[in-house]
Write a structure and sequence with these properties.
378 residues, Butyryl-Coa Dehydrogenase, subunit A, domain 1, 15% strand, 11 helices, Butyryl-CoA Dehydrogenase, subunit A, domain 3, 4-stranded antiparallel sheet, Butyryl-CoA Dehydrogenase, subunit A, domain 2, single chain, binds flavin-adenine dinucleotide, 8 strands, alpha+beta
């Protein structure tokens, strides 16, 4: 394995670093308009969809340059794009399975943030068992008529489009009757209800669909190809979740918290921090392995499952350590006495969701057990 960069790649890194130093906001944008503006600025600076062709609004750069961009974004603490989900997996799925018209229609507006996307797989009675989705799409001429309910749809309340898994057939195995539709969330018959979270936010939603008409031209891939499309999108989602974990920041924050509490001489604290740093390094090496697969055009669903499993547990370990360093003050969140503006309390609550989103840890363990370790399916 060669971990060095070419002179051209180093020059690209320097260019990106100075662009970020000049343009990245110091704090995450808070309003939707500000979030869109930051994403547009990133696109204008050539920092988005770097590996996608220029004809669709991408920057036309290499996978390696994309990886350098990601590293530099993390290093500069630059806020993520608001349309991150579309960039991580909806866009790549449209690029892989879409028609030319679909690519031209959707990709540029994903990148310039004119259209935000949400993902609809989970239903009240099917989350881990996604193949059991019941939302029905019946063909009516040049349209599908969709009826059903999705749940836990992240950002549906601010989204324009829906990457939604529907059932077009009940024949054969349950996964074979699934199809992927690109649904306009402003269509008549769509109702979105936000769900209040434990940390006070309301980022995900229930989505009810009653006789929603979706043009057949907005079907992604063939009828019955939904399972394949979603499985490949999930590999990107899980790699994205794992790759989006900025363990270096967490490590810095843990060290800052230990210093602020005067606990850096405590051997138990030192051991814990060393343990976290070791796990963060393992995650980084796994990320480089995933990048190598990507550079060789190899899809590695098993590595993405293992990385998602380990990365999300690590995130929780960081916030549990942060809270325990603060003692009883760790419980304070929206309070003037809350240390670090209640950051650890908020993070602790928010991080609970990480081992569930994108497929639970139990499901990732099943994948690792069966596909990596070759253990029998129960
Ligand atoms: C922050 C967040 C964002 C999300 N965003 C979206 C989104 O945008 N779109 C979307 O469609 N969904 C989204 N989800 C939903 C998420 O994909 C599901 O919650 C997840 O797949 C689990 O499904 P479930 O909640 O129905 O739990 P269930 O599938 O009912 O699982 C319940 C419990 O049983 C365990 N379990 C289930 N099956 C097995 C098995 N075979 N072996 C061992 N244990 C098992 C699970 O691990 C879990 O502990 C989001 C979830 C979170 C937390």
């Amino acid at each position: 394995m060669d971990l060095s960069y070419t002179p051209e790649e180093e020059a690209f890194r320097t260019k990106v670093r100075s662009w970020l130093a000049a343009n990245a906001p110091k704090e995450s944008p808070r309003t939707l308009d500000a979030m869109r503006a930051w994403q547009r600025k990133m696109q204008e600076g050539g920092l988005l969809g770097a590996a996608w062709p220029k004809e669709y609004g991408g920057a036309g750069l290499s996978e390696m340059e994309q990886a350098i961009l990601n590293e530099e974004m993390a290093r500069a603490r630059a806020p993520q794009a608001v349309n991150q989900m579309a960039i991580w997996w909806v866009g790549p799925a449209i690029m892989k399975y879409g028609t030319e018209e679909q690519k031209k229609r959707f990709i540029p507006k994903i990148l310039n943030c004119e259209e935000i996307w949400a993902t609809g797989y989970s239903e009240p009675s099917s989350g881990s068992d996604m193949a059991a989705a019941k939302t029905r799409a019946e063909r009516d001429g040049d349209f599908y008529v969709v009826n059903g309910q999705k749940v836990w749809t992240t950002l549906a309340h601010i989204s324009d489009w829906y990457f939604v898994l529907v059932r077009t057939s009940t024949e054969g195995p349950k996964w074979a009757g699934l199809t992927l539709l690109l649904m306009d969330l402003k269509s008549p018959g769509v109702q979105i209800k936000p769900i209040r979270q434990i940390d006070g936010g309301a980022e995900f939603n229930e989505v009810f669909m009653t006789d929603v008409r979706v043009p057949v031209a907005n079907r992604l891939g063939a009828e019955g190809q939904g399972w394949e499309i979603v499985s490949s999108a999930l590999v990107n989602e899980r790699s994205g979740i794992a790759g989006g974990i900025r363990a270096d920041h967490s490590l810095e924050w843990i060290i800052a918290t230990a210093k602020e509490r005067g606990k850096t001489a405590d051997p138990a604290v030192r051991q814990k921090i060393a343990d976290l740093a070791t796990k963060a390094s393992i995650m980084r090496c796994a990320g480089l392995r995933a990048l190598t697969d990507q550079l060789h055009d190899r899809m590695n669903p098993h590595l993405s499952a293992a990385m998602k499993l380990m990365g999300t547990s690590l995130v929780q370990e960081f916030s549990e350590t942060g809270i325990s360093l603060l003692g009883p003050y760790g419980a304070l969140m929206d309070d003037e006495h809350a240390p670090f503006n209640g950051r650890w309390a908020k993070q602790y609550l928010g991080d609970r969701s990480m081992t569930i989103a994108g497929g639970t840890s139990e499901v990732q363990r099943n994948i690792v057990a069966q596909r990596v370790l070759g253990m029998p399916r129960r």
